[in-house]
Specification:
Layout (H helix, E strand, L loop, with lengths): L1 E7 L9 E6 L14 H11 L8 E7 L2 E7 L6 H15 L6 E5 L10 H13 L13 E7 L7 H22 L7 H9 L7 E5 L1 H7 L2 H7 L7 E8 L8 E11 L19 H15 L5 E11 L11 E3 L5 E3 L7 H16 L3 E6 L4 H6 L4 E5 L2 H14 L3 E3 L17 E2 L8 H10 L8 E5 L5 E2 L9 E2 L4 H11 L2
Parallel strand pairs: 1-6, 2-4, 2-5, 5-6, 9-10, 9-13, 12-16, 13-17, 14-15
Antiparallel strand pairs: 3-4, 7-8, 8-10, 11-12, 14-17, 18-19
């Protein structure tokens, strides 16, 4: 199933096509009569008397070939609520053979700028499905024809929505790929292909990483027959030489847990342990498509955490890129090792204005926040407040969790500078973030987003089907647009 959207200045009527109208004040048909025949107007008016007017959307079948969809525009409606209306609309009409819909844009009477743009954006986001490996394809097309002169999204807003959709879908695609397809070697190649959008891509392979001293990252991947990589993506869209905004992602393409082996049940889901990196890649693609007026850099560490005769052992000690030594007490606390080297490298090489990292880092954050909020940890109140506000606006919500020096003692090692897990128990997500903070060496404003509960959805949400969500692309794009562009 795909979506095709077209625009016409003329008000086109069809006796067989479904029509979509927008209404205020408890689905009043006042002002909508010109879009309906007399019989349709009377029929729908009668049905409204016995309809549930508390709903956001009502569908009336006026014949075997035609539906009339009424969508309620609430007073003071938020942009995220408009997008959710689009998602709800798609969920209701994604069936049957008659999939042509006329949206009469002139019927929109709302003070909210670009209402239709957000509505169509919600439809597109909700329509995503990962069906690449299904042999039987759904070739149906939902055709949406926007008819009328008023309220149509501008070319610029269409480009911004398109960029966000492509960035989000690219992130979802990456997370959805099975581990035998999207291993680190293939992942690095796919990122390299984004050069065509104007991104500057650098791929550091194992030989280069050893020379740099990234033994924390390399230790995670040493049990795999696949390579380990650090990949940087640079977008220079500002006219000045301002410091870049930096985004760092954990890219563990498959996580067995290493010798600290995960239980067999649900291990198949560990293909999504690279979701933090996928968000960074999708975000950078979005910046390039819409020609964002910022300087930005994305950095991802790509590894596979496997079991073999060469795999890292519990008790091993490695030296990180920062120079700090790490005792590996649990090989399943591997994402923080990848991020440790990636964070220090990003700070040293690019000297960014801020760093935001994303990772499916801990199961503890799911115990704490479920699948409603990502965990936010930060050394900077201003950056935290900006991320929180951006998340509220696009409904990719975050909740700030504590960092405190007293947690450091839980991560201190007897044999090295730091150990990679807190074996005393408790505060699993906080101690993981406390570990990461040690690798921010120059007090750069930094935020860590633990997205373990948000990157993948078993049941789907308002703007995504079940599976990969692409969480973070829209959140961080909003952060940049609102405060830095």
């Amino acid at each position: 199933m795909s979506i095709k959207i077209s625009y016409s200045n003329k008000i086109i009527k069809s006796s067989s096509a479904n029509i979509v109208l927008f209404s205020k004040d408890k689905f009043s048909l006042t002002g909508l009569k010109k879009y309906l025949s007399n019989n349709e107007f009377s029929y729908v008016n009668d049905l409204l008397k016995n309809s549930d007017l508390k709903k956001n959307l009502l569908i009336f079948e006026v014949s075997s070939k035609k539906k009339i969809v009424l969508i309620l525009i609430k007073k003071n409606i938020k942009t995220s609520e408009i997008e959710n209306l689009g998602g709800e609309f798609y969920g209701k009409v994604n069936y049957g053979k008659n999939t042509d819909y006329f949206i009469f844009s002139d019927s929109i009477n709302n003070e909210k700028n670009n209402f239709l743009g957000y509505f169509l954006h919600g439809i597109k986001l909700k329509s995503y499905e990962f069906k690449k490996y299904k042999t039987k394809k759904d070739t149906r097309v939902i055709s949406i024809k926007v008819s009328g002169k008023k309220n149509k999204p501008t070319n610029l807003s269409q480009l911004k929505f398109k960029a966000l959709e492509e960035g989000t879908f690219y992130a979802r695609d990456l997370v959805s790929e099975p581990g035998n397809v999207l291993h680190p070697d293939e992942y690095a190649k796919r990122i390299k292909s984004l050069k065509k959008y104007g991104l500057k891509i650098n791929i550091y392979d194992e030989r280069q990483l050893k020379k740099l001293g990234m033994h924390a990252l390399l230790g995670v991947g040493q049990g795999s027959i696949r390579g380990s990589y650090l990949v940087t993506m640079e977008w220079n869209g500002a006219k000045n030489n301002s410091k870049p905004l930096a985004f760092v992602g954990k890219g563990v393409c498959f996580d067995t847990g290493g010798y600290s082996l995960k239980p067999a049940r649900f291990m198949e889901d560990m293909t999504y342990d690279m979701a933090g990196s996928a968000t960074v890649v999708g975000l950078m693609k979005n910046f390039a498509i819409r020609k964002a007026k910022i300087n930005a850099v994305g950095v991802v560490g790509l590894v596979e955490n496997m079991v073999s005769g060469n795999a890292q052992r519990p008790g091993d000690i490695v030296k990180s890129y920062s120079g700090k030594t790490i005792e590996i007490l649990n090989t399943d606390a591997e994402g923080r090792l990848v991020l440790a080297d990636a964070l220090t490298f990003t700070e040293k090489k690019f000297k960014p204005k801020f760093i935001v990292d994303l990772a499916t880092l801990t199961g503890a954050i799911i115990v704490c926040l479920g699948s409603e909020y990502a965990g936010l940890f930060s050394n900077d109140d201003n950056l935290s407040n900006q991320i929180f506000s951006a998340g509220e606006k696009v409904e990719e919500k975050v909740w700030r969790m504590p960092l405190h020096k007293n947690y450091d003692k839980l991560m201190n090692s007897k044999n090295a500078d730091v150990q990679n897990i807190n074996y005393v128990g408790g505060a699993g997500s906080t101690t993981a973030a406390q570990f990461l903070q040690r690798f921010i060496l120059n007090k750069t404003p930094w935020a860590h987003l633990d997205i373990a509960g948000m990157a993948f959805s078993k049941y789907g949400g308002a703007l995504n089907s079940a599976g990969a969500t692409g969480f973070g692309v829209r959140l961080l794009n909003e952060l940049v647009e609102e405060y830095y562009e």
